[in-house]
Write a structure and sequence with these properties.
The complex is a heterodimer of chains A (253) and B (402).
Chain A lengths: L1 H25 L4 H5 L12 E6 L8 H10 L10 E9 L4 E4 L17 E10 L7 H5 L5 E3 L5 E3 L9 H5 L6 E2 L6 E2 L5 H4 L6 H5 L5 E5 L6 H8 L2 E2 L11 E4 L7
Parallel strand pairs in A: 1-11
Antiparallel strand pairs in A: 1-9, 2-3, 2-4, 5-6, 7-8, 10-11
Chain B lengths: L2 H11 L3 E3 L11 H24 L7 H17 L1 H7 L8 H4 L6 H35 L3 H10 L8 H34 L11 H29 L5 H32 L4 H9 L3 H25 L4 H27 L1 H4 L5 E3 L12 H21 L5 H7 L1
Antiparallel strand pairs in B: 1-2
Helix pairs in contact in B: 2-3, 2-4, 2-8, 2-9, 2-13, 2-15, 3-6, 3-9, 3-15, 6-7, 6-8, 8-9, 9-10, 9-13, 10-12, 10-13, 12-13
Classes of the chains: A alpha+beta (253), B mainly alpha (402).
The structure holds iron/sulfur cluster (SF4) (2 copies).
The site of one iron/sulfur cluster has 14 residues of chain A, from helix 4.
Chain lengths: 253, 402
């Protein structure tokens, strides 16, 4: 009996191996095919995207101010839905980064200006990731992705465990001190639903911030996506940000 | 808005070093979340010790078998509390069970927890005590206690040899199921941290394994100390073969946990990825005392050396007891420090990888030191009640003690 079952087992195993080998030879896996994934905005309408042109940002932080006003973000220096960082790169290789009160307090002139090689501003906010770690970890599903690609928090549902804040690689989230729930950029969902621009895009004097419908091939953002050389932050996280940057320096993270 | 708390954060702004993302100033997970893996770890460790007797037939451990189960139960009952107290909306906490999000490690923890509590631990304790419970429900003279036991029998008072045999079999099966469950329970806690790719200090597949072994060490040390303490209270002799064996297992657990931790460290240093600079600053700076001194030197190397001596040299009973007790205390402190270093340490640096924030522990607030101490002592209070209601001591012992 024992022998028989062992024989059976070997037979089955050999059979399975044969089938697998045959499959592998008949349909060779194509990496290109396997890795190609159609972006959701080809299927869903509308689908929102966001872009920042680093070369255009002048660090005025009007966006930061507008965001705080529009969305009732607590006016403390540690709660932001968007903020603007300044990078100063020096000849020695030293990198100085600051964002005084998210940029609202203005930036002091750099010390030792002779040693500065370049300096630029980088606006930051939620990247409305296509594959958002914050959504993945939320134990109750209070953080979710909308049909049109925006990541939101349901304030009536969030239990305030802060797991999503830990999981966001970009520091885009904070814990709302009054509501005791997670809070972040909503892409001004209440505005864009009415056809308005987000507050930050609306006030940006240089057009460094751009936002629009990716599913519309004629929209400015689609053109931007298609024609410019773009970068995302921390691509290695696999979060697939839908906030893309033009002119991003390698020192930015 | 909690103004005092906001004020603390404003002060913290001045203590930031380097550049942090502005939202990274506030430390999201406080000392209560340090306690949470510590307590679950004690549960898992205590259960492993119990299984050694039951599943692996390490008979010398008999005197601590039931005690281990009760310790595990006492700590398990408290385990979710720090998590719930910490929530922004504790009243919505139940949603984790009602509407769990299946991709969330935290949500799944709820189910692993329930499984372990309901199916494994409670069942096992009940089966193991069933015979006594029935006996007590007949002989107890103090009526409230008698009623309590009556209820606990769940209406089953058959204690014929045949049914006891079945109990024993079932109990054994449960322990066999329970062992992986206990490891799963605590491994899962490790996964809650280990799966956060955004945080390089947490994100490692070794995290659950490290958690499991340090959990074993803490649970074994905990049960050992409680056993010694209870022997002293009850004025009975400590069973030396048992204590020596526990010491051996404790040593093994500490060695494995420590080796894994060092392996993890080595990997970080050798790979020297993008986050290496900030991590080395972290270890050399903010975590120097709690990690290098307390966790590694005091909490790992010292007990390894002490317990090692115990294995090699022939020592007098008194010295052996002393060494065991000291090693147990050191290991417990070291593992608490390890949890601190993981949970709090992982939040000291910003995800900008360019700077550090600070953490000032409150004293009296909801998430302060005081709540942590209360939550830390609560399991011991529960244990005291359990020991009163379900004395785990063998019969001869009980007779001797009274
Ligand atoms: S940037 Fe952070 S908060 Fe925004 S979607 Fe990505 S992970 Fe979530
Ligand atoms: S804080 Fe709220 S939104 Fe974030 S993970 Fe917890 S329940 Fe979800």
């Amino acid at each position: 009996m024992k022998n028989f079952s062992r024989k059976q087992f070997l037979k089955t195993a050999a059979g399975a191996a044969l089938v697998m080998a045959a499959r592998a030879f008949s349909t060779p896996l194509s990496a290109a095919e396997k890795f190609f994934r159609e972006p959701p905005w080809k299927r869903k309408k509308p689908y929102w995207g966001y872009a920042v042109d680093v070369t255009k940002c002048i660090g005025c932080a009007r966006c930061v101010d507008a965001c705080k006003t529009e969305n009732d973000v607590p006016r403390e220096a540690f709660y932001f839905r968007t903020w603007v960082e300044r990078y100063i790169l020096r000849r020695s290789g030293e990198v100085n980064v600051d964002s005084p009160n998210g940029g609202l307090d203005g930036y002091l002139p750099p010390s030792d200006p002779g040693t500065v090689t370049k300096s630029f501003f980088v606006p930051k906010m939620c990247n409305h990731c296509e594959n958002p770690p914050c959504v993945q970890v939320c134990p109750v599903g209070a953080t979710f992705k909308t049909e049109d690609g925006v990541i939101l928090v349901d304030r009536k549902y969030c239990i305030g465990c802060r797991y999503c804040i830990q999981a966001c690689p970009y520091g885009s989230r904070f814990f709302h001190p009054v509501l005791h729930v997670a809070d972040k950029c909503t892409l001004c969902y209440h505005r864009i639903k009415k056809g308005l621009k987000t507050a930050c895009v609306e006030v940006c004097p240089t057009g460094a911030r751009m936002f629009g419908d990716l599913s519309d091939p004629k929209s400015a953002i689609s053109k931007f996506y298609e024609t410019e050389t773009l970068q995302v932050l921390k691509a290695n996280m696999g979060a697939e940000p839908k906030l893309v940057y033009k002119g991003l320096d390698k020192e930015v993270r | 808005m909690d103004l005092a708390y906001i004020e603390t954060l404003r002060e913290a702004l001045h203590k930031v070093s380097g550049y942090i993302y502005p939202n990274d100033l506030e430390l999201q997970w406080s000392v209560l979340i340090v306690l949470y893996p510590y307590i679950t770890g004690l549960v898992a460790g205590a259960f492993v010790l119990a299984s050694l007797e039951r599943v692996f037939d390490v008979k010398v451990l008999k005197p601590t078998y039931r005690l281990s189960l009760l310790v595990a139960l006492a700590f398990l009952l408290v385990a979710p509390l720090p998590l719930n107290v910490h929530l922004g909306h504790p009243e919505r906490g139940i949603e984790i069970f009602l509407t769990p999000h299946t991709s969330s490690a935290m949500a799944m923890f709820g189910f692993v927890y329930l499984w372990y509590l309901m199916v494994v631990l409670l069942m096992e304790v009940w089966l193991d005590y069933r015979r006594e419970i029935v006996e007590w429900s007949r002989s107890e003279t103090f009526w409230p206690k008698r009623v309590f036991y009556k209820v606990l029998t769940l209406g089953v008072d058959n204690i014929s040899p045949r049914s006891l045999e079945i109990d024993d079999k079932l109990g054994r099966i449960l322990t066999v199921v329970g062992l992986p469950s206990a490891l799963l329970l605590h491994g899962y806690v490790g996964f809650i941290f280990g799966s956060i790719k955004a945080n390089p200090w947490w994100s490692t597949p070794l995290m659950p394994v490290i958690f499991i072994f340090s959990a074993m060490a803490s649970g074994i040390a905990g049960v050992m100390l409680i056993y010694m303490f209870m022997c002293w209270v009850r004025k009975v002799r400590i069973d030396m073969p048992c204590l020596d064996t526990i010491g051996k297992f404790l040593l093994t657990a500490i060695i494995v946990a420590f080796s894994l931790e060092m392996l993890e460290m080595l990997q970080t240093v050798y790979e020297a990825e993008e986050h290496f600079d900030i991590i080395s600053l972290l270890v050399e700076g903010k975590l120097f005392v709690s990690m290098i001194l307390v966790q590694i030197v005091m909490g790992s190397l010292t007990p390894i050396a002490l317990l090692g001596v115990l294995q090699l040299a022939e020592l007098r009973e008194k010295t052996r007891k002393f060494i065991c007790a000291l090693s147990g205390v050191l290991a417990l402190i070291g593992i608490l420090a390890m949890r601190w270093n993981v949970v709090i340490g992982g939040q000291f640096f910003s995800k900008s990888l360019r700077g550090f924030t600070t953490y000032k522990m409150e004293f009296a607030g909801r998430e302060g030191l005081l709540s942590a101490i209360i939550l830390g002592l609560l399991p011991l209070a529960i244990l005291a009640v359990l020991l009163y209601l379900l004395p785990p001591w063998p019969k001869e012992d009980q007779a001797k003690a009274s």
